[in-house]
Write a structure and sequence with these properties.
337 residues; 15 helices; binds magnesium ion; homodimer
Chain lengths: 337, 337
């Protein structure tokens, strides 16, 4: 086991660069500051997704700006991590209230969540943004907005961001001046209008967990339909390819931070999709890096083009599994992933 | 009022043909046979959507084949209606069971519904299909499957359809030999793979109510997010344009049967989108026909192309409302729709 561990960490320390010298940046998805040292050890090069919901839940009152800031401050400017990406509040209002009326949504996944909620509760959103912008004074920081469905929401979120930033400047508070603003692409409509969104932001981060749910109209935690949840569905792959193409045409980076980004079986598909950054559970990084280091961009493009011509998710999955087992036998022994 | 009524019915009796002679077929959405005479009076030319869920709900036991057949038989071969489209079961299993466990889905709109449910409960699905195929002996009948997300489901539904048809032939039961099989396009993935689906079916019917919900990740009956439900969202219009183009490239008809299809404000947009058939609440038919009869396909295409270049739903809505109020002042007086 220690040998395996040592072997893995060897891959972890090196960049995720293919044999034909295409480099993918590798980020980590984290929820707590305490996870950072392990993430660095496992080869994270930045924080691709810092979830901030924990700051809000299980409390009696809303978090203060200082409470937010105390967390964010610790997530930026970390040795060994080149960037940190904070995702703004991504829950529904029911998550920090005991009012049962607020919690009553028949389909919460299609309800008042994330940026929708923040654009209604602007004062609360501003508190979080103030803390984020202040944390930006201490290192390379990116902020991203979840559940954006179209250009109006990104306009509005940026407008509020600018107001908050202006306030902080007036107050002579130290701030990050070059914070990058990104949008999560996880609502299908955002994927379809990616060309326009790309002109408004500095980067995309594709949130595959939700994107796949909505594209396939599947609640992935409902075990009765979980069999239909399929990252390799041709509709999902095509939409992602469109999103990365739209991002690149407009000169912005395209990251992916859903679970799909950390699945080694999809490594070549992800390379073929031309993602600039993959952000994942830190423990998955060494294996993903190892596969990327042993692959080529060319074969990845060929594999992607091959499977994009298939009609069904079943054919794509069978082909990818077979290809990956043959190509990386020691990584994919036995049946399936 | 009688004058208005008389005036309206004048438009109702004529086809929905534009001044430049583009004809759109007009269907009606119905739930009960009793609605048919009024639908014919209001100008329906066929049944675009016959909902069959009522046969299942509020009962102690599942409906028999004869019960299904008794309903369907009355919906085909009706004088004045050139076609009848039966949609197969479109609910979750919780709708005809008293077992509370079955009803527990956190996000029922993303759950085991419609074709998903039918492909699990094949025996029950076969009972409905037998009745539909038998009803096809009495007139021009089409059947369509709701909530299809990809090609596997349509393959499977057609396979079961063929088995049932084969059984009926063996039993020497009179059947419809030329029943058209269609797929509802209402899951985003189905829209994205429309090209492939078009090769498998005889027609598309775009179910905009659900399609818009999933594309925008909005539960339209949740009033907290209803403000985001927007048929004129650029992502929705683009996806519909892709769907009709894919259908037509493959030589099949493309209908629309969601509420969007019956909204007079969208009449020119719908014409521009090249839909072959609009199916709506019967009471809405005269007004829709009147507008189409007074419009041209050319202006509709120009309007659509104009708004497809806009970035935001707000701009599109403003432009369409302004255009329609100016163009059809007596139809769109006052503010908005
Ligand atoms: Mg998400
Ligand atoms: Mg539907």
């Amino acid at each position: 086991y220690e040998l395996v561990q040592e072997d893995f960490l060897k891959y972890a320390r090196l960049p995720a660069m293919t044999k034909d010298r295409c480099r993918v940046d590798i980020g980590c998805n984290i929820e707590f500051i305490e996870e950072i040292p392990s993430a660095v050890l496992h080869g994270a090069e930045g924080i691709g997704l810092y979830r901030t919901e924990f700051i809000y839940i299980n409390r009696d009152r809303l978090p203060t700006e200082e409470e937010h800031f105390a967390h964010y401050r610790q997530a930026v400017g970390i040795e060994g991590l080149a960037w940190s990406t904070i995702r703004t509040f991504d829950l529904g209002g029911d998550k920090f209230t005991s009012d049962p009326k607020l919690a009553k949504e028949m389909n919460p996944q299609l309800g008042l969540r994330a940026i929708r909620f923040c654009l209604k509760e602007v004062e609360q959103f501003k508190v979080q943004l103030r803390a984020i912008i202040r944390a930006g004074a201490f290192g390379k920081l990116r902020v991203m907005f979840p559940m954006v469905s179209g250009i109006e929401e990104i306009h509005e979120a940026k407008r509020i961001f600018d107001i908050v930033k202006g306030d902080l400047i007036e107050e002579h508070v130290p701030i990050g001046r070059d914070i990058e603003i990104g949008v999560m692409i996880e609502v299908p409509s955002a994927g379809i209008v990616a060309e326009e969104l790309a002109k408004e932001v500095d980067f995309f981060s594709i949130g595959t967990n939700d994107l796949i749910q909505y594209v396939l109209a599947i609640d992935r935690i409902n075990e009765r339909v979980a069999y239909l949840y399929e990252p390799l569905h041709p509709a999902v792959l095509r939409l992602i390819a469109q999103i990365t193409a739209a991002g690149h045409r407009n000169g912005i980076r395209v990251a992916m931070c859903g679970e799909m980004a950390g699945e080694p079986l999809y490594a070549l598909i992800l390379l073929g999709l031309e993602l600039d950054e993959l952000s994942m559970n830190p423990l998955g990084i060494p294996r993903m890096k190892k596969i990327i280091q042993n692959a080529t961009l060319q074969e990845s493009r060929e594999l992607l083009n091959k499977v994009l011509a298939f009609n069904s998710a079943t054919e794509i999955r069978d082909y990818v599994e077979h290809y990956m087992r043959r190509r990386f036998p020691e990584e994919f022994q036995g049946a399936g992933q």
